[in-house]
Write a structure and sequence with these properties.
single chain; alpha+beta; Sufe protein. Chain: A; three-stranded antiparallel sheet; 5 helices; globular
C-alpha cells in the first residue's frame, strides 16, 4: 500500500481502506479465488464458506492500492450473510463504483478485480457444495 494520493477517493472509500472489514482467511473455505492485476500488480485473495442455507461468510487478503483494499472491504461487507446467488447479482463492479461515487482516473480496475475474484470464490464454494456455480 504505497505512497499514493488519497485526495480523489470518497470519505467512505478511505474509511474502508483505513479500517478494512473482513480481513483474514477461512481455514475450511469451500471456495477460494486469487487474482493479480497484470498492469498494477494488485493481488487479491478471497475465501468463501457457505452455510446450509447458502449464506456467505467471506474474508480477504490484499496486497494492493487504496481502491482495491477499499472495494474488497466493501464487497465482503455487502456479501456477508446473504445468499450466494444474491452476491453474484448485487455485488458487482458497478455497485462498488456507485457505493464510492466512482474511482479516481486510472483506478477503474479496482472494483472489477474485486467483483471478479469474489464471484469466482462464491462460484467455487457453490460448486463444492454441488450447487449450480451461477
Amino acid at each position: 500500500m504505497g505512497s499514493q494520493s488519497h485526495e480523489h477517493y470518497s470519505e467512505l472509500a478511505l474509511e474502508h481502506f483505513r479500517n478494512p472489514r473482513n480481513v483474514g482467511e477461512i481455514k475450511d473455505a469451500g471456495g477460494v479465488a486469487c487474482k493479480e492485476h497484470p498492469a498494477c500488480g494488485d493481488r487479491l485473495k478471497i475465501w468463501v464458506r457457505l452455510d446450509q442455507d447458502e449464506n456467505v461468510e467471506v474474508k480477504f487478503r490484499a496486497s494492493a492500492c487504496v481502491g482495491t483494499v477499499a472495494a474488497a472491504s466493501a464487497a465482503t461487507t455487502m456479501a456477508e450473510g446473504i445468499p450466494a446467488a444474491d452476491v453474484l447479482v448485487k455485488v458487482t463492479e458497478q455497485s462498488l463504483s456507485d457505493l464510492f461515487g466512482g474511482f479516481p482516473p486510472g483506478k477503474s480496475h479496482c472494483p472489477k478485480l474485486v467483483a471478479t475474484v469474489l464471484h469466482d470464490a462464491v462460484s467455487a464454494a457453490r460448486k463444492a457444495q454441488g450447487k449450480d456455480s451461477r
